[in-house]
Design a protein that fits this description.
This protein is mainly α. It has 9 helices and no strands. The longest helix has 19 residues.
Length: 161
């Protein structure tokens, strides 16, 4: 199985289990929303193919049992339809990016750490994140920041101590 299909299948399975609430806890609301988009896009596409309706409906009811048939159908679809493959890849990238903190969530991290976000530099999300990391680094608080990040996004591999 190609890496794109494998990664998407994991997200589809997690989303199918509870339609989002469990995923929100794991990766945050923005990523869970993208997972839902990915889920709908993939299964709706499969429903338009011969035998796809049966496989997609079965997957929604029992993701474990229908994982292999969905994987096979998705791989076939991705190879046969470059436009569909591009759309899945776009959603996959958006899902991965959304696992990280948005600007509001970064401000929440600052609050949790007792850091005044207004004192940090950065207009964009990435600038604010870099400023928070630098702030924590100079004060020996990177482990604390890493712990909060891991707690709020346990499925992301954080390159912090």
């Amino acid at each position: 199985m190609d890496p794109l299909t494998a990664g998407i299948l994991v997200v589809l399975g997690k989303y199918a289990i509870d339609k989002g609430p469990g995923l929100i806890e794991e990766v945050g609301p923005a990523a869970a929303e993208k997972a839902g988009e990915l889920f709908k896009t993939a299964l709706n596409y499969l429903r338009g193919k011969p035998n796809g309706q049966f496989v997609a409906d079965g997957f929604e009811e029992d993701p474990g049992t229908y994982e292999k048939p969905v994987a096979k159908e998705l791989e076939t679809a991705v190879q046969a339809d470059p436009e569909f493959a591009a759309r899945l890849e776009e959603l996959w990238v958006q899902y991965q990016q959304a696992q990280y903190f948005n600007r509001s969530e970064l401000k929440g991290l600052c609050f949790d750490m007792g850091v005044a976000h207004d004192d940090l530099q950065g207009e964009t999300r990435s600038e604010l994140a870099q400023s928070l990391v630098a702030y924590c680094h100079t004060r020996g608080r990177l482990p604390e920041l890493a712990g909060l990040c891991r707690k709020q996004r346990p499925n992301v591999e954080w390159p912090l101590p």
